[in-house]
Amino acid sequence: MMIVSAQIGRTLRALRQSRGLSMGALARVAGLSKTIISNIEAGDSNPSLESLWRLAGALDVTLSDLIGDPSPPRARLIRRDEGSPISSSSGLEGRLLHAEGASHRTEIFSFELVPGAHYSSAPHIPGTEEFVICLSGTLEVGPEGRGELLGEEDALWFPADVAHAYSSMDGCRALCVMSYPPAHGISTRPVPEIDRGDAR
Q1: Given this model, what pLDDT does residue 128 score?
Q2: Alpha-carbon span 47 to 36, nearest angstrom
Q3: How far is 188 from 148, CA to CA, in rounded Å?
Q4: Number of folded domains in the chain?
Q5: Which pLDDT does position 77 carry in this prediction?
Q6: Same-domain pairing of 101 and 154
Q7: Helix, strand or coil, per DSSP, at residue 34
Q8: Is the pTM of this model over 0.90?
Q9: Cβ(120)–Cβ(109) below 8 Å
Q10: Whole domain around residue 173: which residue ranges?
Q11: Which parts of 60-193 fold into alpha helices (H)?
């Protein structure tokens, strides 16, 4: 895991510096402490999924720009125990399986929710869409207050530039395809609040 953490740290530092941001400025936009960002850049911590989303939103990049392979080959074999790991203290565990294109505008994740887990996501950058397929178990997913209950092999497309959530009473395995709009400059809007207990 430390190799992955070191990679994320190097990428975060490069993205921050390329935008002329100090750690303090990035911390304010992302809603994280300067200490958290310093530890991530130093490779001294395994950042939570919530912290990574906050940083990606603050830098106006996709999650795979932080944790994915910057130059994936045209054909790539992904074994079941491979892929960049992601996790949430709310009970979501997953892996980034693929990031498409030079600017990584499409990402594919596999993830699992333990029984009773509920994961809330802040809005992603405007124009982001998600397509979620439930592989096993049951999964309630979608915009907050408008989620749909999926059974095995059910799927849901929804706009992900609004607050949305994933929950499962009995546990599930699923795939998520995330589609982003074309890249543009750094966002100056505040990143919506996420449970501070999950942002490490």
Answers
A1: 87
A2: 8
A3: 32
A4: 2
A5: 54
A6: yes
A7: helix
A8: no
A9: no
A10: 84-179
A11: 63-67
